[in-house]
């Protein structure tokens, strides 16, 4: 079954925050994995679309100068990028190890490299078309077919797809920014660990809570019901999709939230 509702920004943002917290243990690496439903897909529209919509929204809000400022500032970061194509992140979990890949379209990879090296440090050529950036942890970059692929492991940059936008599962055609979470693709032990951290945080908060006993009991009951609901959700939800877009035809922006349940 599937439910799709346009809901308030406040509620959707809260849901997104909770889901991001739940997924935090599974987002430690970014390298490609195949053969299973992805645990997380993030789609980001092209720079042209994003900046165009920001200009439209700020103009509609009566602050066109803000949109102009954003476009001016963005100019220094999009040099060498293909501003007409989307970018994204694809994360999977194999066993207990999260794996994924990030990708962005480039028109001049050498310019991108020069910008990176001027900002954060030299990219070392480690062979096979892969370059390494040494920060707090090593980051590997490979240029192939007009795309820059990024991972924390050089081995994960083998067998790259010709068109990585196919991994976005259509999110790039629907939203400016889209996030799809395959809840059941996250191992149960990771989901339980995340839920345990939420429970521990709640218990710690309640232990330090002072004030009226009746109010405290009410807050505790509501909190425990919310945790129980989240636990049930993590068992029964199959996919969660959150997407933000702009509808210039109707003159509005919107946030979609959809859930697909397991059979």
Described by the principal axes of the CA atoms, the overall outline is: globular
Number of strands: 11
Structural class comes to alpha+beta
- What is the count of DSSP helices, taking H or I runs of 4+ residues? 7
Report the helical percentage. 25-40%
Structure description:
The structure is a single chain. The protein contains seven helices and eleven strands. It is globular. The longest helix has 24 residues. With 263 residues, the protein is α+β, with helices and mostly antiparallel strands. It starts with a strand and ends with a strand. The N terminus is likely disordered. An eleven-stranded antiparallel sheet has the order 1-11-10-9-2-3-4-8-7-6-5.
What secondary-structure arrangement, pairings included, does this model have?
Blueprint: E1 2-6, H1 9-23, E2 40-44, H2 47-60, H3 64-74, E3 87-94, E4 97-105, H4 109-119, E5 123-127, E6 130-134, E7 138-144, E8 147-151, H5 171-174, E9 177-182, H6 188-207, H7 213-236, E10 237-247, E11 252-261
Antiparallel strand pairs: 1-11, 2-3, 2-9, 3-4, 4-8, 5-6, 6-7, 7-8, 9-10, 10-11
């Amino acid at each position: 079954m599937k439910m799709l509702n346009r809901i308030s920004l406040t509620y959707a943002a809260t849901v997104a925050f909770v889901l991001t917290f739940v997924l935090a243990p599974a987002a430690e690496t970014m390298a490609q994995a195949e053969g299973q439903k992805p645990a997380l897909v993030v789609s980001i529209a092209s720079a042209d679309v994003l900046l165009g919509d920001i200009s439209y929204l700020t103009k509609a809000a009566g602050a066109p100068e803000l949109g102009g400022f954003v476009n001016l500032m963005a100019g220094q970061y999009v040099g060498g990028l293909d501003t007409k194509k989307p970018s994204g992140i694809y994360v999977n979990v194999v066993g207990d190890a999260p794996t994924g890949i990030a990708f962005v379209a480039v028109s001049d990879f050498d310019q991108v490299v020069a910008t990176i090296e001027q900002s954060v440090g030299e990219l070392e050529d480690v062979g096979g078309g892969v370059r390494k950036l040494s920060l707090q942890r090593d980051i590997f970059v490979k240029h192939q077919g007009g795309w820059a692929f990024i991972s924390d492991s050089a081995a994960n940059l083998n067998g790259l797809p010709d068109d990585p936008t196919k991994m976005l599962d259509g999110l790039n055609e629907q939203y400016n920014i889209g996030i799809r979470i395959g809840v059941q693709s996250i191992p149960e032990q990771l989901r339980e660990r995340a839920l345990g951290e939420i429970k521990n945080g709640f218990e710690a908060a309640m232990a330090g809570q002072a004030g009226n006993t009746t109010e405290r009991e009410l807050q505790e009951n509501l909190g425990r019901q919310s945790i129980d609901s989240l636990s049930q959700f993590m068992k029964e939800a199959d996919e969660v999709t959150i997407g933000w877009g702009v509808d210039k035809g109707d003159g509005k922006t919107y946030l979609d939230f959809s859930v697909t349940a397991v059979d």
